[in-house]
Amino acid sequence: MSYASVEDLKARRGPIYANIYAVDTAAADDLADAQAEIDGCLGKRYAVPVAAQSVQPLLRGWTLTLCEERSYSRGGAGSLAENVIARVAKVREYLAMAMRGEFQLLGAEEQDGGANGTAIALFESDEPQFTKDKLEGY
Which neighbouring-strand residues pair with 110? Predict the structure, then answer.
């Protein structure tokens, strides 16, 4: 499942798409890289790829924004435009918030049933051999 398609990227980049990408496979690679970054962050909390239809427009936008950053390096256009830098920073801020549980993807399946990355481990063992009482006098 992809959050954004090459056609979505063509629409976002407009007429400069052809100047950046000689073949669509390069664009697909950049989209896959952007989605991997998103899934890497969201995977801490959610089952990825996120399948909830309610958040697909948001994930599409995030993927295209991160991909736009990658397209600048392919196009040799020099430094990133200020508006792209600001949008990319905002996407990464939301991803960090989602990892910390401060931003929720409503309808997305959580990894651990809602425990937000916490776990409980129960174990049993033999009686401790070196306790304070047993070592008294040494």
Answer: 46
- Residue 32 sits at φ, ψ, to 5 deg, of -65, -40
Distance CA 101, CA 91 (A): 15
Report the amino acid identity of residue 110: E
Q: How far apart are the first and last CA of the chain?
A: 64
**What whole-number percentage of the chain has pLDDT above 90?**
59
Residue 46, φ and ψ in degrees, nearest 5: -115, 155
Assigned token pair, 104? 């929720």
Distance CA 48, CA 96 (A): 16
Query: Model's pTM, two decimal places?
Result: 0.76
Which has more confidence, 20 or 131?
20
User: If DSSP codes are grouped into helix, strand and coil, which group holds residue 134?
Assistant: coil
Mean pLDDT of 105-126: 69
What type of residue is 119? A
The structure tokens 């427009």 sit at 57
Can you tell me the distance from the alpha carbon of 125 to that of 138, in angstroms, rounded to the nearest whole number? 25
